[in-house]
Amino acid sequence: MTDASSSHSPEWFAEWFNHPLYLELYSHRDSSEAFTCVETILDAIQAEETGEMGFAVLDIACGAGRHAMEFARRGYHVTANDLSPYLLECTARRAGEEQLELACSRQDMRTLALDRKFDLVVQLFSSFGYFTDPDDDQKVLENASHLLKKEGWYVLDLIHPAYLRAHLQPHTEKRIGSLHVDEHRHIEKDLVIKDITISSDNETLKFRESVRLFEPGTIRKMLAKAGFEIKRMLGDYHGTPFDPEQSPRMLLICRKGQE
Fold first, then answer.
1. What is the C-alpha separation between 191 and 194, in angstroms, rounded?
2. CB-side exposure of 253: number of CA atoms within 13 Å?
3. Domain ranges of the chain
4. Rounded distance, CA 240 to CA 235, Å?
5. Do 220 and 250 touch, CB atoms closer than 8 A?
6. Residue 46 has what DSSP assignment?
7. What is the longest distance spanned by two Cα atoms in the chain?
8. pLDDT level of residue 29 (50, 70, 90 thresholds)
9. Is 148 helix (H, G, I), strand (E, B) or coil?
10. CA nearest 226: which of 257, 190, 252?
11. Which of 38, 135, 188, 259 has the largest CB neighbor count within 10 A?
12. How far is CA 255 from CA 33, 61, 87, 208, 249, in A?
């Protein structure tokens, strides 16, 4: 496992993504959803034409490894990167239980550096737009481009801002086992912010998520600056074509140009 500490911490994601309750809260994001998403990606890039021998995949922000493991199950050479030691431990443990070959790397996506180039880089489940400085988001795109082979593929999964604004739920409550989860959401300029309070019999914990929203035109310019061309834009993990009014996601299938 490659391990690199971050000079940017502490930030909200460094704390929240390293807490065991994160997986409790997002337990509904399961392997079935990951299977569908990976199927859609491989179909979009026509991976069967590339051949699997030596095809290398990097998951820039792998979380607990749902997507990275799905790629590994299909025989691809997978590197799973994340900043959270806890989530990487979960990924390594689960991969070991299934006897999957999967390399783990712990690095900040802004300064990610690896000693190989990849055929496919993925950044899924709204794992982009975390940083206070928007220039840091551009650095992530530049890193993804640098880590790709010529004409490699980059798949970026974003929230669709127009859909979110139309369907935002300002307040929800739910129970997960013995936990009571209270969530408040609001949009502040180009950020969607979620304040989370998790209560049990013993304690109450508070966390915040803050993710930048990107309009289609804005992210297209950012990707072009990093050397990418959007080949397809899908509206969900099932591969439905993007609809400017109805699609909940922007799944951007991008290709790196020749250097």
1. 10
2. 21
3. 2-160+215-256, 165-208
4. 5
5. no
6. T
7. 58
8. low
9. strand
10. 257
11. 38
12. 24, 19, 29, 33, 19
Q: For 2-160+215-256, give the CATH class.
A: alpha beta
Q: How far apart are CA 233 and CA 236, in angstroms?
A: 9
Rounded to whole angstroms, the Cα distance separating 14 from 151 reads 32
Classify residue 69 as exposed, middle or buried by CB count within 10 Å of its CB (0-12, 13-18, 19+): buried
155 forms beta bridges with 122, 253
Element (H, E) at 157: strand 148-159
Contact in structure between 190 and 212 (CB atoms under 8 Å): yes
For residue range 107-155, list pLDDT tens digits in order.
999 999 999 999 999 999 989 999 999 999 999 999 999 999 999 999 9
Q: What percent of the chain has pLDDT over 90?
A: 75
Give CA–CA dist 230/55, Å, rounded: 21
